[in-house]
Design brief:
alpha/beta, Endonuclease, Chain A, five-stranded mixed beta sheet, 17% strand, globular, PLipase_D/transphosphatidylase, hydrolase, PLD_domain, lipid metabolism
């Protein structure tokens, strides 16, 4: 079955930053609900998660990725070279847990993609893509 779910972040979501921290929702289009949807997709992985993202700082995403890793799900990350060393980035913590994190070798360019593949070599494969970094500011 093919299906699409759209997440539109608008100015209305700027008021939802506290909802992410407090884990409460103000309605269907709340950033908290959008984050829950992303986490549910990550949690549904049975074989692999391949994440290619410019910037990732959310602790709840860190928890989903480390949980998947502990369940023997293959977790792979590709990120931007600069964001890999950003103080709020979770990629260094993921590397310390044995999760592979790759960065582009070219210091003159940056990797700005935002997508992830779940169980990409199975019949239950999923793809998520867009312009959203996995940060509280983006949601």
């Amino acid at each position: 079955t093919t299906w699409y779910k759209f997440i539109f972040i608008t100015q209305e979501n700027f008021g939802c930053l506290e909802h992410l921290r407090q884990e409460v929702s103000c309605g269907d289009k709340c950033s908290h609900n959008y984050l829950q949807t992303i986490k549910e997709h990550l949690h549904s992985a049975k074989v692999s998660i391949s994440l290619c993202i410019y910037h990732i700082t959310l602790d709840s995403i860190f928890e989903e990725l480390t949980d998947a890793h502990s369940r023997n799900i293959i977790v792979r990350i590709i990120t931007d070279r600069e964001m890999n060393y950003h103080s709020a980035s979770i990629t260094e913590k993921l590397k310390k847990l044995g999760i592979p994190v790759k960065v582009q070798p070219d210091t003159q360019s940056f990797m700005h993609h935002k997508f992830f593949l779940i169980d990409e070599n199975t019949d239950d494969k999923e793809v998520w893509f867009g312009s959203l970094n996995l940060t509280a500011q983006a949601l």
